[in-house]
């Protein structure tokens, strides 16, 4: 059932409007931060209000403008889009609490620009989630790039500016190829609207489908950090920790994998991808990225860089799930989109707490901190075990579906890839915990730790608890599974 409603537009605009208020409140820090929280609560409330209309297969429609003949720009909220929207809007609320504690503790400069860019980023992320067509998706996809650029460059030193330029070059070049693909699609088919199961079959010259698929996947694959177009993400770790959390869990890289899910399920469709075998090279690249990034993570001493390569690997779990072209794998991919976000943002929150309290960034410098900051490292352990797929964490559920999807294809090599990667997850996470709880060597000074900042710790406790609850609490498990299964059902016509 379709429902016409302006709620998706309001949900997108609320944080953009808050951004304007943040600019006008630059001389009043308390008021500036209040706008962030007010907008975050309203945004999440508006998104959550769409759940009853969508949860059983319904959609919510709102037309923005008739931009092209027979190709209007419009929002169309379905189960997949609502999943991403609920994720991004809720985690913005949690990250806002963390951000205030972080920037105050470190007395960060340019805080107005920081909060303004954050607000615009969340408007763009929701626009991506709700986009009903390729053009609307592209507009918000590029707005997200522009909104997050100042956040990557926030420190304004040489390293930060270089990383921001790299991010911009990678993202805008990918956007150019995506725009070419969208224009080509419209000229050939006369449509840009997403359709469950795809709309290109029989509408596009089969000789050029491979080229079109490459253009779309490259356009999304940069933000999703597929090898070999991943280099911008580790470089972007120079940004403040809340920005890293935003990039990895809420907005940029999740927008990339969300785009891959849209392209494979709603533009090409599983039947066309299967008949043309275009999904096979995508699966191979995702598998290579999945393992390669995990291996590189082992060699990273900087904690945020290790987490960055872990993200690159975990994103490819989702992309490989989409490329397997089975309902079970697609369900697992959507579940992992959510589960990875809660678990990975917990790890970044913990990395930020370590930096604020002890000013440590490298794993080799963590010795002795585990005994002085036990709760922080317990939370880090929860996130680590969840991403490695240990029951009863939520990561176990999504990885179970992904592995089952690999079994359904009869291609055991991809099951092997998933299992090996989970072992590698342990190999690069467990040493962090071991290092933290090892005693300081004789003759070395005990690390100094500042007083606990609860404004940083509480958000980490919330996200870690939800990462556990999504694997243990039946109501939450079924609710999360219901949206994911409905998204897979729409794609595969079940």
Describe the structure.
This protein is mostly helical. It has a domain at 277-489. The chain is built from 21 helices and three strands. Strands 1-2-3 form a three-stranded mixed sheet. Strand 2 and strand 3 form a beta hairpin. The longest helix has 32 residues, at 158-189. The radius of gyration is 21 Å and the shape is globular. The relative contact order is 0.10. The model has no long low-confidence stretch (mean pLDDT 89).
Structure described in brief:
The chain has 21 helices and 3 strands. With 494 residues, it is mainly α. α8 (209-221) runs antiparallel to α11 (252-268) and α14 runs antiparallel to α19 (412-437).
Q: Layout of helices and strands, plus pairs?
A:
Blueprint: E1 2-4, H1 7-24, H2 29-48, H3 51-54, E2 59-68, E3 71-77, H4 79-105, H5 111-130, H6 134-152, H7 158-189, H8 209-221, H9 232-235, H10 241-250, H11 252-268, H12 270-276, H13 279-298, H14 303-323, H15 327-358, H16 369-372, H17 374-388, H18 394-409, H19 412-437, H20 454-472, H21 474-492
Parallel strand pairs: 1-2
Antiparallel strand pairs: 2-3
Helix pairs in contact: 1-2, 1-5, 2-4, 4-5, 4-10, 4-15, 4-20, 4-21, 5-6, 6-7, 7-8, 8-11, 10-11, 10-15, 11-14, 13-14, 13-19, 14-15, 14-19, 15-17, 15-18, 15-20, 15-21, 17-19, 17-20, 18-19, 18-20, 20-21
Kindly name the structural category: mainly alpha
Arrangement of strands in the largest sheet:
1-2-3
Q: What level of helicity do the residues show?
A: over 70%
Work out the helix count.
21
């Amino acid at each position: 059932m379709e429902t016409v409603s302006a709620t998706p537009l309001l949900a997108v605009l609320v944080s953009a409007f808050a951004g304007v208020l943040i600019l006008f409140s630059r001389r009043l820090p308390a008021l500036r931060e209040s706008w962030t929280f007010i907008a975050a609560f309203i945004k999440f409330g508006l998104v959550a209000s769409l759940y009853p209309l969508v949860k059983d297969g319904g959609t919510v429609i709102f037309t923005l403008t008739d931009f092209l003949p027979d190709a209007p720009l419009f929002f169309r909220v379905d189960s997949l889009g609502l999943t991403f929207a609920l994720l991004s809007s809720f985690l913005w609320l949690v990250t806002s609490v963390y951000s205030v504690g972080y920037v105050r503790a470190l007395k960060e400069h340019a805080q107005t620009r920081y909060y303004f860019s954050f607000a615009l980023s969340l408007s763009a992320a929701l626009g991506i989630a709700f986009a009903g067509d390729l053009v609307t998706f592209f507009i918000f996809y590029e707005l997200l790039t522009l909104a997050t650029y100042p956040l990557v460059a926030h420190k304004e030193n040489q390293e930060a500016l270089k990383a921001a330029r790299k991010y911009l070059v990678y993202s805008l070049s990918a956007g150019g190829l995506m725009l070419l693909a969208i224009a080509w699609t419209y000229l050939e088919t006369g449509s840009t609207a997403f359709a469950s199961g795809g709309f290109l079959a029989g509408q596009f010259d089969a000789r050029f489908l491979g080229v079109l698929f490459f253009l779309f996947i490259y356009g999304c694959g940069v933000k999703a950090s597929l090898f070999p177009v991943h280099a911008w993400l580790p470089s972007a770790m120079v940004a403040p920790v809340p920005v890293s959390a935003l990039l990895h869990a809420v907005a940029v890289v999740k927008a990339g994998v969300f785009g891959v899910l849209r392209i494979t399920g709603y533009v090409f469709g599983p039947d066309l991808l299967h008949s043309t075998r275009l999904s096979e090279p995508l699966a191979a690249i995702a598998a290579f990225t999945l393992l390669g990034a995990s291996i590189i993570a082992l060699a990273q001493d900087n904690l945020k860089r290790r987490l960055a390569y872990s993200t690159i690997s975990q994103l490819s779990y989702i992309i490989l799930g989409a490329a397997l072209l089975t309902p079970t794998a697609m369900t697992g991919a959507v579940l992992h989109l959510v589960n990875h976000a809660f678990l990975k943002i917990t790890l970044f929150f913990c990395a930020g707490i370590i930096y604020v309290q002890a000013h440590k960034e490298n794993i080799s410098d963590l010795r002795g901190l585990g005994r002085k900051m036990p709760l922080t490292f317990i939370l880090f352990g929860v996130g680590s075990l969840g991403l490695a797929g240990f029951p009863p964490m939520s990561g176990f559920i999504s990885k179970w579906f992904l592995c089952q999807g690999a079994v359904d294809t009869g291609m055991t090599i991809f099951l092997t890839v998933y299992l090996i990667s989970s072992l590698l997850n342990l190999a690069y996470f467990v040493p962090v915990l071991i290092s933290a709880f090892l005693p300081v060597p004789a003759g070395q000074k005990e690390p100094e730790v500042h007083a606990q900042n609860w404004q940083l710790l509480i958000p980490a406790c919330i996200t870690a608890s939800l990462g556990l609850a999504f694997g243990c609490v039946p109501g939450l498990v079924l609710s999360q599974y219901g949206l994911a299964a409905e998204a897979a059902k729409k794609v595969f016509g079940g």
